[in-house]
Protein 1
Amino acid sequence: MRKFNEIADFGKELMALEEMDNVLDLISSKAKELVNADRCSIFIVDIEDQILWTKHSDGIGRIVISLESGIVGDTYLKKEPQIVNNPYEDSRFLPKIDKKSGYTTRNMITIPIFNSKRDVMGVIQLLNKSRGDFEPQDLETLTFFANYVSGSLELVLMQDS
Amino acid sequence: MTYANTYHTLAQFGRELLEKKTLSQGLPLISLYAKNVMKAERCSIFIYDPKDKTFWTTLADNVERIVIPSDKGLVGETLHERKPIVTNDPYSHPNFLSEIDKETGFITKSVITAPIFSSKREILGVFQLLNKEDGFDQDDVKFMIFFSHYISGFLELTNDYLKKEI
């Protein structure tokens, strides 16, 4: 397990970026690599409009959902990560997004990203682990990862608004 | 908007910090930067040891560690309340430990603290600055909260996870 050393190197790369788009891209490609997931979306919380939005998700473009909808919305509400290895049997799951993208979600892990005020400012969502299902070990890695990138993300979001 | 410019240049500090491979290399940089931008005379970072219920911090030479109980003073109160504390009149604050000033000969005129949280939202440490010329205000509190969060990833990585990989 050299994951945390890898994250340390990744941190340097992340800090070198100033544009929000690049920051989101780099976070999402690293998150996929860390847990061998096929797709990643980073949802940003917009309290004013009561929505969660993504800049561009893998294979589908921009997604906008209401704050409480889907497993991502539930992650925001509960402030807790979620592992869902049977999404089509989960009442919170939004199959319409699969329909729109033509993709089939087999399993999912979501992690809240907290800002310095300890409010949820975003949610990292990963889909389809390459072998098997998402496990508690993935959750630990990603929980750490989400906090590690949160300072940079808060800073770029602050400068973007 | 006292800190508007600071936020803008913070990523530069972040890059320098991530060049440091260990906690003991990073702490002096954090401390120096915090003192400069907040215009404070002293800075201490107390790292929490939940097993022993103590904090450790380094003295000015960064080699020797001192250990203090975690239920005492303004640092202990920060741990307990999980919130920043600011006082511009420490000697009349019930939790201030004036004995430390007596021992060191330093006179504390103002104090600001902030908890540092881990990814599991447990307390990793307490960040403390002493003596700002005109006292600390709400802008300082806001910046402390932001800054403690900003450095928390580095602290958690070097204090906890990297150790497990060596």
Protein 2
Amino acid sequence: MFDWKNFEIHKNILSHVGPDLYQERWGQHHIDLRPRDLIRWTLLCKDDLGYLTLVDIAAVDRRNMPIRWNCNFEIVYVLFNMGTHQRINLHVHLNEGETIPSIVHHYSHAGWMEREQAELLGLNFDVKTPKLILSHAEKTIPLRKDAVLGKWSPYLPQELPKLRVNPNKSEAPYPEESWQWKTLGILSPETMGNFEWQLCFDPEHVVAARTTIGFHHRGLEKLMEGRHWLHVMQLADLFHAGSAPTYSTTWAKTLEEMLRLKLPERAQAIRIVLLELARIVEHLTVMHEMTVSIKKDESRLFLNGREKVFELFEKYCGHRQGFGVVRLGGVREDLPHGWVAEYQSIATLLQKSLRVTHNSLLGQHNFRSHLDSAGVNAQTVLQWGVGGPAMRASGLNFDLRKSQPFYFYQDIDFDVPVGIHGTSYDRYLIRYEEIHQSLRIVTQVLDNLPLGEVVNTNAQDIDALQTYFKDLHGSWHYSSLEAPNGETGFLLLCDGDATPYRLKIKSPSFTLTQALPEFVRGLRSDQLQVAIASLGIRKTELDR
Amino acid sequence: MKKENELKVYLLAQTTLLPEWISLMGDKYLHALPFTVQFTEEINEAEVIAWDGFLSSKGAYYLGETISRIKAGKVLLLLQREAFTLFKDHPYLTYIDPDPDHYVELPGGNVLPEDLLSALETCYKKLQHV
């Protein structure tokens, strides 16, 4: 759990660089740097201070804002310490054309994050890589403030790597000579519509894989930069409609932390209930997708359970999913009369039906043979920055609800299930157990539901809020929560205006897709689809 | 081989609606129609393609053939209004505007499974009569 004593220790160490370079805001450390100091600071943070995880990278064109050291661009690296649960933000200030040292040798998963920022902001990293989201020949730099968006240039898939051939025919052939590369596009069932895949088979098992994303890119980050803070709340759940209201809650949490807006206890309780119901919905959807991919009739039973949770959402807000229920400073409305009793009967029914379905699946020997595939160990998961059930299935006991409890999760008694082998089967079991834990959380919250308002009345005065936003001019803040598939967060730069100046979304699918070659290595072709389904990769989270 | 009274549906890049499409595969809605709905993973054998109608340049690489088949007479379901409001002026996206006979329009983001069933029924009728 977040420990202020540890925070003060790190604050004392870091403040030696001077108040000009170090700041502490909202319980996070901020350091201002020039590109030449980046590697030194990265090593210090990782090796000496224990910030082993890179959470996200966001760059911004600051030409319409006050600048530092006469630099027009800024890149923020958000690092996380899993031991002391602290975050440090390294702000690198640079000018156009300046080269930024890549940190990919220190954080493996920095690769895609750097590529994304390089192409969307036109920055130069010292490691040259092809474009990630846009087409290779694309010249426009969309996230620059003076960007004039034109038509996209046509896309051509990457060439398949050439395999090594032994030139000496009198010797035994290299093992690679029996391998075969194969391209699977977004229309292939194995990719589930999310990305293009280049896979190398040996010829039975996957030995190497590459993924390309950007096929459904809508530019939602750019779209949100032009919208009012409160409109973003409604758009946020488009990132992953299946787990609504997770993203809108994350966005509201980010703003509330920046504005130091206190939530009424009842609003916090209702948000916890909604988040846990969204988690149940998403886990049931993933379990359904897993069982569909191996053609099990039980798949429909997961959906029937999900319909019951949708009924609860519908009774609360009129919509089957949790769209539009979150307000700045609370939630839209109180729980209606009789809702708690309704929940209790549905929870009992859901638990029973889940057990029956689960036991039925376990009784079929081919269920385990499809799911018991090559596993991913904890070190690999940590190296690639993967979170959520995929991380916990590999044996890492980490959950933001425990480590950085938001609302009043610290007062709730629940367990974090942890797997061993990191296989699809482990991920299935983690999701199954997490549903039971979520029901346990909701039951406890509803049994002790606090009285009072469901929204902070100070948050209703938009004009007054606007004056607070003006005071936040030039402030960065990162806030996150534990979503069903991992950490979701918003990294936000405020310029005092009614719209976000820069908004960067942290989504679990992006990290998972980057790490996907690790998750599929050693699998047979018939195990691929279920392995992807178990990760819960969503195309809307993937292409911003 | 195609069965009698069967409608094959392919889900393509449906963003906000995907959870509701999946709902149709549960017991509650599965037998609500006078024909069988079969979700297919093979776009070339689909009779109905559910799509928001927007195309990026990367997506176009894989969908060129599909678009020509849609324009040649396949029924297309559109999540039109919400996607259209958000993205219609987006310079990076192309909107596929088929012949009115060849698509069925869904009302918007807040679509219930019942609306999807009704839209599928319209598709089925259009396939038989148009």
